[in-house]
Design a protein that fits this description.
Strand order of the largest sheet: 2-1-3-4-5
CATH topology of the largest domain: Rossmann fold
CATH architecture of the largest domain: 3-Layer(aba) Sandwich
Order of helices and strands: EHEHEHEHEHHHHHHHHH
Strand content: 5-15%
Largest sheet: 5 strands, parallel
Number of helices: 13
Number of domains: 2
Distance between the termini: 12 Å
CATH class of the largest domain: Alpha Beta
Length: 252
């Protein structure tokens, strides 16, 4: 759902912007309104807002002051400022606050929609970045950079390409070929964790990506990540992430 807050002390402007957005938005949305800066700040602190469309000059707090006070808000909105004044200082401050756009009144429908489109693009980019952070095991990436032995690099490539299949250190040592005990010892020396821990972390990374980017069932994800039963997969996932797969998926 797209959550939008329109803050302006002029009722005609507020309702005009709201009607324009309601006629253009196609996906699920919620539009809230505020008639002053203090009310806008209260709403922003009470509930997440994706896009803030705010007048610069308002009673109580200006639109710029509202955004400046959002440092304590976890979910910061993408801001579009509107004003009846073309003062350079306002525009400069809006840029410093990373505003999506700065529009001058009277507002044209085309300008409002173009600014909203830019704001929603930024929102999509931010969501993609946040999802990438959730599914990427940074520690795993760092550990992989340590590998310098050619056979260990082959082992890493094999694991990444065969996560849906049963994988054991003994099996992989036989493919290289290499003594199983020596392979396990060399792997830990090179990577810093045991072979089984490495395989589990790779499987969990893949599982998180599938949970957030697909509609596959838990059982299907268990199969694609090399677990014979969804029950065992859930147990391993919970131990690794402190959340069940279903709880993790709700973070989308």
């Amino acid at each position: 759902m797209i959550r939008i807050l329109i803050a302006d002390d002029e009722p005609r402007t507020r309702e005009g912007i709201k009607r324009v957005l309601e006629g253009w938005l196609t996906e699920s949305y919620h539009i809230a309104v505020a008639d002053n800066g203090v009310q806008a700040l209260e709403l922003l602190r009470q509930q997440p807002v994706d896009v803030l469309i705010s007048d610069i000059r308002m009673p109580g707090l200006t639109g710029l002051e509202v955004v400046e006070q959002l440092s304590t808000v976890e979910h910061k909105p993408h801001c579009i400022f509107i004003s009846g004044y073309s003062e350079f200082a306002y525009a400069q401050q809006a840029i410093q606050l990373e505003a999506v756009d700065y529009l001058l009144k009277p507002l044209a429908k085309k300008e409002i929609l173009a600014a909203l489109h830019k704001a929603l693009e930024r929102r999509a980019d931010k969501q993609a970045q946040e999802q990438m952070k959730k599914v990427t095991d940074i520690r795993l990436a760092e550990l992989q950079q340590r590998a310098s032995h050619p056979e260990i690099n082959k082992a890493l490539d094999y694991v990444r390409a065969n996560l849906s299949e049963p994988i054991s250190a003994k099996q992989l040592a036989g493919l290289l070929p290499m003594n199983a005990n020596y392979f396990s010892q060399l792997f830990k020396e090179q990577i810093g964790i045991s072979f089984s821990d490495y395989v589990t972390r790779q499987r969990m990374q893949l599982a998180k990506r599938l949970l957030l980017t697909t509609s596959l069932s838990i059982q299907e994800i268990a199969e694609q990540t090399g677990y014979q039963t969804d029950r065992y997969f859930i147990r391993v996932f919970r131990a690794h992430e402190q959340l069940s797969p279903a709880q993790f998926r709700k973070q989308r």
